[in-house]
Amino acid sequence: MFYPKRVPKIADRLFPQCLWRKSDHALYLTFDDSPSPHTPELLDMLEQHNATATFFLIGQHIERYPDYAAEIVKRGHRIGNHSYSHTRNLKAEFFRDEVIKTERLLSQLNRENLQRQSLFRFPYGTFNFATLRVLKELNLTPVMWSLLTADFDVSVSANMVLNLLCSAHGGDIVVMHDNEKSISNLKTVLPIALPQLAQRFSLKRL
To answer: Which is the catalytic residue, given 38, 61, 77, 177?
Structure first.
C-alpha cells in the first residue's frame, strides 16, 4: 500500500485553510477513530510519560463507548470531530449532517468546553472544496497532519512505525489511530518512542 508518510510542505500552500503542521518546536500527537476498547491503554501510556494528545472522535463510537470518551476528557486531552460514521461520502449535505451530529455528542461529552478547539479531521484524510466550505460555515478548523506513522497498516512492522515516529520534526502533527488494527503496533512502539520524543520535544495537544 502506497501513501506518503511525510506530507510535503507544498500542502500548506495548496490548502492553507487546513492545519498541516505548527511553527514551534513542540510535537503534536493525534489519534483518530476514538474511542475504542483500546482507549484506556493509550491513555495510560500517555500518562506514564506526561504526554498530552488530541483525540479525534467518531460519533458512533462515542455512543458505543461513552465512558471511554469521557475518560479522554477527564485525563486532560483535547477532543475533535472525526465525523459520525467515518464515511467516504463527500456530498455536502450528508457531510454536514455527519459533522453536526458528532458536534452535538462532543458538546454533551464536554459541557464545560475545556478541551474543545472546534477541530475536525476528515476520515481517510479525504476532502473536497464542498466539505471545506461546510467546515468554514460551521467554524471548524480542518486538521490534517505532517507525519503519518502507518500504525494502522498490518503490513508495516512495529519497528518501521517506531522509526517513522522517531523521525518527527518540531512542529509536526503526528497521526496515529485508536483502533484494532493499530493497537498491537502502538503497544510496542509508544513505550519506547514516548520517552525518546519527550527528551527532544514538548509533547502537546493541539
So the answer is: 177
- Nearest C-alpha neighbor of 103 from the set 62, 73, 136: 62
DSSP β-ladder status, 54-57 and 27-34? parallel
Catalytic residue among 25, 32, 86, 172: 32
The cell for 166 is 522517531
Residuewise pLDDT in 10s, the chain (206 residues)? 556 688 989 999 999 999 999 999 999 999 999 999 999 999 999 999 999 999 999 999 999 999 999 999 999 999 999 999 998 888 999 999 999 999 999 988 866 545 556 999 999 999 999 999 999 999 999 999 999 999 999 888 999 999 999 999 999 999 999 999 999 999 999 999 999 999 999 999 99
Other C-beta atoms lying within 10 Å of the C-beta of residue 48: 12
Question: Which domains occur in the chain, in start order?
Answer: 11-204 (3.20.20.370)
Q: Cα 205 vs. chain centroid, distance in angstroms?
A: 10
| Residue 32 annotated among the catalytic residues of the structure | yes
